[in-house]
Specification:
Blueprint lengths: L2 H15 L3 H6 L3 E2 L7 H4 L16 E5 L26 H9 L16 H4 L16 E5 L3 E6 L5 E5 L16 E7 L3 E7 L19 E8 L4 E9 L8 E9 L3 E2 L29
Parallel strand pairs: 5-6
Antiparallel strand pairs: 1-11, 2-3, 2-10, 3-4, 4-5, 6-7, 7-8, 8-9, 9-10
């Protein structure tokens, strides 16, 4: 492998493994041709934002916490781990003790058992929102697509009025149905998860009983608020809730971030402490 490839792989893995306020604010999306070097496009818009369009979330969105909100924890979990821990069941507590996350400072990348980093598993819903990359809504007649820059991940949210299935096949991102509530709020209910993903980057587990409700509120043309409620009677003693904030990026298009191939070859990284291949995460 050439040195440049190793360096690029290490950068991508580090973005996923290390909490950092700056990357969560800016992401990896790129400006559309014609705007990349346009000085006018880089100037802040001081005008009042235009109103939100009716029944429309389409476009590219990037997490951006409100200025001065001190919400750096949203890079890796839903509520402040120092003041607002989730309420876990005994099963949830035991599962959390098994987690070796590389975001809390207790474990390094060569020690973690984070399934996204060590096995390249899809992140699941709603953990996918912690990845420091933009996503795009694409609206169709019978469903809404969420296309994530990270690893080509996609969610299909059915909007044709169908109910949630009683016994869905387990999947990484779950089975989702959505409906409009008023003109600017899109409500999504998701069930049917497997148990192979974490709820967050700290290692909180969930069961196949997880139910996720998302309320996407388009505040105006440029801003989106996402209320997340996670209910899981096996893992959570009470619902876990949070609000994330996003900014519309009309001049961005999604790039490509792939979790594949040498991306997971930990033995390529000289900074890791293990010396033998059998010590690498399995």
């Amino acid at each position: 492998m050439c040195k440049g490839s190793v360096n690029s792989i290490w950068i991508a893995l580090a973005l996923l493994a290390i909490p950092c306020v700056s990357y969560a604010q800016y992401g990896a999306g790129k400006a559309l041709p014609g705007n990349r070097n346009n000085p006018e496009a880089a100037k802040p818009n001081t005008a009042a934002p235009a109103p939100a369009p009716t029944h429309d979330l389409s476009g590219v969105w990037m997490m951006r916490n409100p200025p001065g909100s001190n919400r750096g924890f949203t890079n890796y979990t839903y509520t402040d781990p120092k003041t607002d821990l989730p309420s876990l069941t005994p099963w949830g507590e035991e599962k959390f003790k098994e987690a070796k996350d590389s975001n809390g400072g207790n474990y390094t990348l060569d020690q973690t058992n984070d399934p996204v980093l060590t096995k390249c598993y899809p992140p699941g819903t709603p953990r996918v929102y912690f990845h420091p990359y933009p996503f795009e809504f694409v609206q169709g007649a019978k469903f809404m697509l969420m296309v994530f820059e990270y690893d080509h991940t996609m969610r299909r949210i059915y909007t044709d009025g169908r109910p949630l299935p009683a016994d869905p096949d387990p999947s990484w991102m779950g089975y989702s149905v959505g409906r409009w509530e008023g003109n600017t709020t899109f409500v999504v209910e998701t069930v049917g998860f497997n148990e192979k993903t974490w709820l967050d980057r700290l290692g909180h587990a969930h069961s196949d009983q997880l139910h996720v409700r998302e309320r996407f509120r388009r505040v105006d043309r440029d801003h989106l608020e996402l209320d997340i409620t996670m209910t899981d009677p096996k893992a959570l003693a009470k619902p876990w809730t949070s609000t994330f904030y996003y900014q519309n990026r009309p001049d961005w298009e999604l790039g490509e971030i792939s979790c594949s191939g040498d991306y997971l070859d930990f033995n390529n990284f000289e900074s890791f402490s293990f010396k033998k291949k059998d010590e690498a995460p399995k």
